[in-house]
Design a protein that fits this description.
The structure is a single chain. The chain is rod-shaped and about 150 Å long. Strands 31, 32, 33, 34, 35, 36, 37, 38 and 39 form a nine-stranded mixed β-sheet that branches. The model has no long low-confidence stretch (mean pLDDT 96). 0% of the residues lie in helices and 60% in strands. Strand 28 and strand 29 form a beta hairpin. The chain folds into four domains: 79 residues, Sandwich (Immunoglobulin-like); 79 residues, Immunoglobulins (Immunoglobulin-like); 79 residues, Immunoglobulin-like (Sandwich), CATH 2.60.40.10; 79 residues, Immunoglobulin-like (Sandwich), CATH 2.60.40.10.
Length: 334
């Protein structure tokens, strides 16, 4: 009777803890009296046919020689490798939006041949094994704090934790308008604003911003035109938008009448464009009382001043207008 011949062990790798089943292929297996993994006996084995044995792998480490013994002798050897259990030590970044899509780097050991990366109970959207110590994975959608693990033929790693964050939310921007030249300081109110990484007016970043609290940001509007959507971006994603309007600077075309007494009280009609948001009218450096009639008309009460010309201007949320001359006429000498 010829000794047994061993041709393969399938699979030829497994966890260091053992207990996994393998199939030994070969010939002359009838009457097998032992199946050995190195110096350790298989936990159990069954001779299925003269050419196959099913065995349960014992615990072990490294690469060992598998043999089969029968009354006719000892087989040749076939290698079996115990794969180390993978470990994870870090994940970066460790937070991202609930919508998923965050690319993270997992650091650890024994990651070669990884067969699964999971976030909680959800598989990673995708992953790439860069080396035995590093995996790049894309987080799936999720909520809260979840355990991230990597699985190989050596088993499943211990966890590192990834935190899903809600996107920030905006409630208001105040003031909600300013000059096209930018420079207006605005206060954004909302929730989840801690950790903000960007504030944008349309597609333009804010000139600067300061996160005052989880519910408030102070930002400086950049230059722009028209009405734009203001958003905030943080680790949890991008917020809803609130509206900010850029206003053109006002323009004055006529004063009527264009002259008056040196004393206070003369009503002067200012005609122009962009006057709706007027908050100041000046005759020289002196403020004047005024009423906005429409976007093209305002009526001001000229303040007292010396005889001669004085420049009149208006200031709105869009800036300060050009100036027109108003002539103060001295009363006749008696």
């Amino acid at each position: 009777m010829a000794p047994p011949v061993l041709t393969s062990v399938v699979p030829n790798t497994g966890p260091a803890a053992g207990t996994n089943p393998v199939t030994l292929n070969g010939s002359q297996f009838t009457g097998a009296t032992a199946v050995m993994f190195g110096s350790a006996a298989a936990l159990s084995y069954t001779v299925n046919t003269p050419s196959t044995i099913t065995a349960t792998v014992p615990p072990g480490t490294g690469t060992v020689n598998v043999t089969v013994r029968t009354p006719a002798g000892l087989s040749n050897t076939v290698a079996y490798t115990y794969a180390p259990t993978p470990t994870l030590s870090a994940i970066a970044p460790n937070q991202g939006p609930t919508s998923g899509g965050t690319s993270v780097v997992l650091t650890g050991t024994g990651l070669t041949g990884t067969t699964a990366v999971t976030f909680g109970s959800t598989p990673a959207t995708s992953y790439t094994v860069n080396s035995a110590t590093q995996i790049t994975a894309v987080a799936p959608a999720g909520t809260g704090a979840v355990a991230v693990t990597a699985t190989t033929v050596g088993g499943t790693s211990g966890p590192v934790f990834f935190y899903y964050l809600n996107a920030p939310s905006l409630l208001s921007v105040s003031p909600a308008q300013g000059p096209a030249t930018g420079g207006t300081s605005v206060v954004l109110t909302g929730t989840g604003l801690t950790g903000t990484t960007a504030v944008t007016f349309g597609s333009t970043p804010a000139t600067s911003y300061t996160v005052n609290s989880a519910t408030q940001i102070t930002a400086v509007a950049p230059a722009g035109t028209g009405t734009v959507a203001v958003t905030v971006t943080g680790p949890g994603g991008t917020s809803n938008s609130v509206t900010y309007a850029y206003l053109a600077a006002p323009a004055l075309t006529t004063l009527s009448p264009a002259q008056g007494p040196t004393g206070a009280g003369a009503a002067v009609t200012l005609t122009g464009t962009g006057l709706t948001t007027t908050f100041a009218v000046h005759f020289g450096a002196a403020p004047a009382a005024f009423t906005v009639v429409s976007d093209t008309t305002a009526i001001a009460i000229a303040p007292a001043g010396p005889a001669g010309p004085v420049l009149v201007s208006v200031t709105t949320s869009g800036g300060t207008s050009n100036s027109l001359a108003y002539q103060r006429v001295a009363p006749p000498a008696i």
